[in-house]
Amino acid sequence: MALIPFPRASLRSPARRLLRSGLLDALAAPHGVESYLEHLHPSFLPRGPRAQIAEIRHGAGSVTLTLLPNERWNGFRAGQFVRLTVEVDGVLETRCYSPACEERSGGEIEITVKAHRAGKVSRYLHEHARPGMTVGLSDAEGDFVLPAERPARLLLISSGSGITPVMSILRTLCTERHCGAVTFLHYAPTPSHVVYRQQLAAIAAEQRNVQVVFAYTRETVAGQLAGHISSEHLRRVACDYRRSHTYVCGAPGLIAWVRSRWADEGIERLLRTESFLPPSFATARYSAAAGMVHFSRSDAQVYDDGRSLLEQAEHVGLRPPFGCRIGICRMCTCRKTAGSVRNVLSGEISSPAEEDIQLCVSVPVDNVELAL
Amino acid sequence: MTTATAPQLSRQQTDELGRELDAIRKLVLADLGEQDADYIRSVIRLQRKFELAGRGLLFFGFIPPAWLGGVAALSLSKILDNMEIGHNVMHGQYDWTKDPELDGRSFEWDSACPSDHWRHSHNYIHHTYTNIVDKDRDVGYGVLRMSEHQPWHLYYLGNPLYAALLAVFFQYGVALHDLEVDRIVTGEITLPEKREQLEAIGRKVGRQTLKDYVLFPLLSGPSAPLVFAGNASANLVRNLWAFTTIFCGHFPDGTVQFTELQAAEETRGDWYYRQLLGSADIDGGQLFHVLSGNLSHQIEHHLFPDLPSNRYADVAIQVREICERHGIPYNVGGLGKQFGSVVRKIARLALPD
Question: Among residues 202-231 of chain B, which lie with CB inside 8 Å of chain A?
Answer without folding.
Answer: 207-208, 210-211, 215-216, 219
